[in-house]
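So, can you check these tokens?
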Amino acid sequence: MENLPSIYQRAESQPGSFLRALVGVLETTTQSLDTRIAAMGRRIDPSTAPKEWLDFVARWLGVPWDDGLDLEQKKAIVRRARDLAKGRGTRAGLEALLESIAPGTPRRFRVTDSTADFGFATVGGDGCAGSSLPAMLGGRTRWSPELDARAVLDHVRLPCAGQVDDGTWQLAGKIRIEVAASAKERKAWEPWLLALVTQMVPLTTRIDLRFVGALRNDRLDGELTIAPPPTPHLGSGTVTGLVRLPERGARLSDCGPDIGTRLR
């Protein structure tokens, strides 16, 4: 009635006004729509949106998504939708996704891009300091009679027509992702985590996803110490990532007799 011309607004004060009754029916049917429209902001805001609306908003925004995510993970991903869209294909975007899935301080994940973080190893000498470890070693890991793969210091083999490349393709474009998770978390995350992180890296990138009990420093510096073997036990906190070398007959590679090295 307030939005009608003034001549019609007079009918509101008249007893038994048909116009007032008609407008009242329209107001009654639209009040629920007004309430739903007023609540739309709460359905889009990740802190107040219901779980089913988070699925809709996330797919609308095009962020990495899976219905198997728990509620807090879904909220965190939608909150960082801008960072994920801006950083797709970059380390920052990948880390933003992992921070949303596995939050915590210090970080519960480690991203290692071998070609960007390490570079290829060089042998020092004659005033050259050489590479610091860890570093990548290029070259083939398999030997065949048809292709001599022996490496000789101070020499380099140029590629020839029809010759397989020197093996650096196995290292280039490979990203290792380590995620510290409990046995329960691994069981819940394993079905979809690899698919989600794959959406955040370039198409030519290969991902090596590993679940670990805890992140350990793998750099050969003053922080790395050799500890005695842990006490064997069963449970969700079992120590992994350790291996015992046999006393004899362990082959370090499956190359040919000219390259294979054995422990004695």
